[in-house]
What we know:
By secondary structure, the protein is of the alpha/beta class. It has 19 helices and twelve strands. Helix 13 links the parallel strand 10 and strand 11.
Amino acid sequence: MAFLILFKGCELMNFSTQMSAAKKGIITSQMEIVAKEENKTTNELMSLMAEGKVIIPANKNHKNLIPCGIGQGLSTKINVNLGISKDSACFETELKKVYLSIKMGANAIMDLSCYGKTQEFRKRLIEECPVSIGTVPMYDVMGFYDRKLEDISSKEFIKVFETHAKDGVDFMTIHSGLTRHTAEMLKKNKRLTNIVSRGGSLLFMWMELTGNENPFYEHFDEILEIAKEYDVTLSLGDAMRPGCIADATDCCQITELMELGMLTKRAWAKDVQVMIEGPGHMPINEIVANVILQKKLCHNAPFYVLGPLVTDIAPGYDHITSAIGGAIAASAGADFLCYVTPAEHLRLPDLNDVKEGIIAVKIAAHSADIAKGINSAIMQDYEMSKARCNLDWNKMFELAIDPIKPKLYRESSMPTNEDSCTMCGELCAVKNMNSILKKE
């Protein structure tokens, strides 16, 4: 067994990233916290991290972070997207979503701001938020330089990445797999919805306008050095993710995924943590195969999926189409689910949309954790079933993913006898079975 060093705090570090610590047999304070939360030994966790199968996004400049583990053998984590835009640029409104998300148990928040004082908002978010913060530097490029897209140089793209890293961002989405080769694949293999990734479409435009290679691919080694310095986890984005059922699992998507697998190896060689982003829209019968393929091609790196949305015809209800796909994906091995709100494809979500999206993705993650054999999830359902058998309404509310809604439903229609409900009343199967079996 390797000699283990227990490291507390961030002073006098003799490792550069959580991954490099794991490879050296050093147990960091972040690993200790995650191991305890996940009911694993620190040795088990450290071994998985050294292999790249588990990550702990933890930028050295995010001082108030409560670390969270993502990956193999751990509970399924959830992410909430928010951020300011040209049409909705109120800091306070977005921060209310942040506070609600943390209260409801989000494990990470992605700041997708693309307008105005993005750095000011990002810094405030990092200062006030104890969960992992993610960003997409590409969204910030045009606002950062306030110039036409084609007038921005390759090096300037990398400068924005470095700025986000210095600010304390824990993980960043970069679409490094969208190379000139994969761009040509798209042009030769027509899609119904082309590229639906915002960052991916901007990069494609820049490449077409300038004739240059993707800066996040061409200068990947420089990105790795920056990521290593601040311990930024790379979330290798899927610019070629399918934006509709008809485009799922096509050659564009798979070509990019193969490239992401090679980039993963390059990142690990520099001790940089990596997760892989996965498809957005996909028929149910293709989800499991896609998860298996991702894990195979990307060497079991943690898998982060948006949805997948299992049908294209439910605007206003895409938190449901997403939760269906997310539950299937996570039960098959996906590790990190991005929430989708009822406002998806329609507008920036409001507070109620955020709540509905979080509840839906929590249901998906919890359902998958039962399938994965995560004991804490199994026991929560067991305790709920016991409370139902005992007709213990308060305990049921306490254990519910959303304690408020079921309580309001019950209070809105109280039965004559409080030990039943207005659906069955005296015909309540639970009440009658408890009564007859008690006599025996």
